[in-house]
Amino acid sequence: MNKESKQQVVAELHDKLVRAKAVFLADFRGLNVEKATHLRNELRKSDIEYKVVKNTLLELASRDTDKGSLVEHFTGPTAIALSYTDPVAAAKVLSKFAKDQNAVFKLKGGVLTGKPMSVADIQALADLPSREVLLARMLGSMQAPTSNFVRVLAAVPGGFVRVLDAIREQKEGL
Question: How many whole angstroms from its chain centre is CA 106?
């Protein structure tokens, strides 16, 4: 690669790092072509960009971005996954793949909206329920007080009717 093409790659990568909500780094040492293709396809389904990048170019591109904390992970072969929309989906796919591949594919770390993440943080992010499930839970929590209030209000007349019925049965029994 000549100097001009390296500068172009660095500028392109810098732009992608600035736009990305989440960036994850992995060591793909020992990953065969079939498994790498499978990983790329899974990431593509979730709208995640996956690249293998030279560490020096990645270091140059990460300067002046909120992803600068990744520098400590720029050792050995490095693959980068960029998520522009849903960081949880990226974490789920990568952590599941790392779990399936044991020692072949290892997560190094990541950055989520400017905050560095360890491998344990990425795993915790992957264990989160989907956005739809979280929204449904929140909606259920918001509706619970209203539902309970309606049940309490309905119990008062219901109790009154049961008392009147008991009085009626008592008078009929006399």
Answer: 18
119 lies in the same domain as 141: no
Whether residues 93 and 145 share a domain: the answer is no
Q: How many CA atoms lie within 13 Å of 168's alpha carbon, on the beta-carbon side? A: 6
Please tell me whether residue 52 adopts helix, strand or coil conformation. Answer: strand
**Contact at 8 Å (CB) between 110 and 117?**
yes
Q: Which residues pair with 50 in a beta bridge?
A: 81
Site of tokens 């560490």:
55
Neighbouring-strand partners of residue 115 = 112
Which domain does 140 fall in, by range? 133-174
| pLDDT tens column, 72-119 | 888 888 889 988 888 888 888 888 888 887 777 888 888 888 888 888
Q: Are strands 115-117 and 106-112 parallel, antiparallel or unpaired?
A: antiparallel
Q: Which H or E run contains 122? A: helix 119-126
Instruction: List, for residues 19-71, the tens digit of each pLDDT value.
Output: 888 889 888 887 788 888 888 888 888 888 888 888 888 888 888 787 777 78
Per the structure block, which two tokens stand in for 58? 């990645």
Same domain, 105 and 151: no
CB 79 within 8 A of CB 26: yes
